[in-house]
Amino acid sequence: MALDTYASSNPNEVHEDVLLKARDACYKARDAFYACLEKESGKKPTEIATVGLLYPKECSSSRTQFVNNCRSSWVKHFDREYCRNKRVQRLLDGGDERKGPMSLPQPYTFKPSPST
């Protein structure tokens, strides 16, 4: 990873071009992995990523690139962000009965119990 090379050779010097290249490599790997997830969305997810994200085996190589090119805290952040966006999209698009305002039970729903 470019970041490791940078850190070990020049611990007191900041090379913004190297950091920029490492960040760009991370973003490209991230985009490739999530594009694979979208492309293979019809397949059964069998692999487990961070924060409970599941993905199909076909995306394993792009996942490996993503994990190798990004800091682990970034990987977790991007996975959380992806899951959150998918959940919101599913609630907005799907026929999920939980979307919209919550309906509260009406008074006529509860019948008084017969007193003896």
Automatic annotation (TrEMBL):
Cleavable signal peptide: none
InterPro entries linked: COA6_pln, COX6B-like
Region (Disordered): 93-116
A GO CC term attached to the entry: mitochondrion
Keyword set, alphabetical order: Disulfide bond, Mitochondrion
Localization of this protein: Mitochondrion
Origin superkingdom: Eukaryota
Keyword Mitochondrion in record: yes
This protein's record includes keyword Endoplasmic reticulum: no
PANTHER family tied to this protein: OS08G0441400 PROTEIN
Record-given protein name: Cytochrome c oxidase subunit VIb
Organism: Arabidopsis thaliana x Arabidopsis arenosa
Organism ancestry: Eukaryota, Viridiplantae, Streptophyta, Embryophyta, Tracheophyta
